[in-house]
Amino acid sequence: MTISVKFFAGLRETLDLSNTHLDADGIRNAHDVWVQATDNAPVPENTLCAINLDHIEWDHPVTDGDEVAFFPPVTGG
Amino acid sequence: MTVELFDTPFEPYTLLQQHQSSRLKSGSYGACASFVGSMRDFNEGDRVRSMELEHYPGMTEKQLAEIVEDAKQQWPLDDALVAHRVGLIQPGEPIVLTVCWSTHRAAAFEACRFLMEALKSRAPFWKKETLGDDDIKGEKSRWVANNTAGYSEK
After folding, report:
1. Cβ distance A12 to A25 under 8 Å?
2. What ipTM goes with this model?
3. Burial degree of B137 (CB within 10 A; 0-12, 13-18, 19+)
4. For chain A: N or C, fewer Cβ within 10 A?
5. Residues A26, A54: Cα–Cα separation, whole Å
6. pTM for this structure?
7. Hey, is the C-beta of A45 within 8 angstroms of any chain B C-beta?
8. Considering only CB atoms, which chain B residues are within 8 Å of A55?
């Protein structure tokens, strides 16, 4: 299973991570993606998640080819 | 229904006027409500010199289009326009424009408000401020932690 993973804003800076690809089996949901992509880093409070450009909960299943993004609360407008 | 992102300064009232004259038929609507948000040179007691507005290309456009669609489902709109800046922004520059056209004022006002509030909670933008006065050497920057206190109905 190949997953594209993105991090944005303060979260990207804190983790010192940006875009990456995971090529691993046993990934069921967004939380598993986080664990694999960050080497099980603690999740900062209020971190949000999206799959394929839609907001989702962390237990949302992922499938091969998905784009998963993690980011802080949004502050536009 | 139009959503636009700008990586350089935009003129909201020109945009509104151009959209209105090219996309709406004169006499076909009775109300136009608009909101313009612009960058302050202060925040939380500090001077703010500039601001970097990061976003998630692709998701931003998708979320904004869905927000406009949600508004269309809730109110009888003739048209709507959303414009938002990204990139490096200077104090005084417009950040966001929301406009709604409708037959009557209630739908236009309420939908315009809805667009702004929904945008602030759903569209993937993040503000990073650079603080200090021009004569201060070195830069101090911070991510804006959350939105303003928000809107209460009363």
Report:
1. no
2. 0.96
3. exposed
4. N
5. 22
6. 0.94
7. no
8. 63, 122
